[in-house]
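Q: Hand in one record:
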Amino acid sequence: MAVTYHKSTIMIVKTLLDTDLYKFTTSYAYIKLFPSALGTFSFNDRNATQYTKEFLKALKEEIRNLSQLRLSQDELEYMACNCRFLPRVYWEWLSSFRFDPKKIKVELDDNHQLHIEVSDFLYKATLYEVPLLAIVSEIKNRFYGNIADIHNILQKLSEKVELSNQNQLLFAEFGTRRRFSIEVQEAVISYLSTHASYCTGTSNCHFAMKYGMKMIGTHPHEWFMFHGAQFGYKHANYMALENWVNVYDGDLGIALSDTYTSDIFLSNISRKQAKLFDGVRCDSGNEFTFIDKLIARYKEFGIDSTTKTIVFSNALDFTKALEIQKYCHNKIRCSFGIGTNLTNDTGFEPSNIVMKLTQCKMNANQEWRECIKLSDDIGKHSGSSQEVDACLYDLCLYQKQKGI
């Protein structure tokens, strides 16, 4: 389906804080441990949408607008006071940070597929991901002529919130990157802030500040992908967790499990890490199988699984979340990160877009190394087939996943 021109753009992202908390925590981790590391983030539209030159023109206009963003003094003070795990010096650095449109390569190929790449020091490059995705998603809806019915969105949201309130279902809003629009996301968060008794917060720092909500987030797949590229796939999970602890000393303690499949993660995690981290995030695969495997691993370590938490974040809706919660009952704590089902449940097909770390190097003198990601959903691995196969061989997964 082709995207056609609908109307001119306005400035979509208006503040540096209109992004997910984990972008800042990951940025600081790079600064502290790998300040000379460089990386490239690449855009992928999984729906193979065909875009137009008019769309590209509007996108470039919004990219230019990003360079105008500044962290205000009020924002600096808020973040410094509410993120005890990040030092004030980081926010003071961020107040001098500027998005650089020259770092962003954007073009259409001969098939009208959209290509976006950002290359820079990793502590800066990581900050581009979420704003760019949010911009593409919103402009795409405008060009299709999609108009959100806020009344209908909030009516559906009220039913979801009622389900959460009745069942004490803990969830956080994770919907910035693929939101329908910033207006829809704000309407959703405003409603959640006053009606959802078991909403634990939002990943969006701007709206957390505006509505007095807790900011939620820890680390992304890119952190593990970087470690895999630099230190080898067999050691990636262990080293990524160890380095996270070296930066945050036990804070931000939900470990992401599926960068190189959850089975590999569970075999790599040490007893110290299992005890230190508060829990694990499940972002792909069968949630019920993962629950059983994680509880069994905790049992091997002599850890009471009812003291630990799983955060589920794999394209969830509230009905499925409730099924998972019932399965976890009296076994392990659970919470849910829900994105698209909150900020893009509009009746229109949501964008299926991502930006992934595709290459990195430890310093300017090193050669680029490809970054890849496996998944508990076979067929959703990212990266070149050659490097994915090399990773599968290294982790002794090739024969299993190829059915040999």
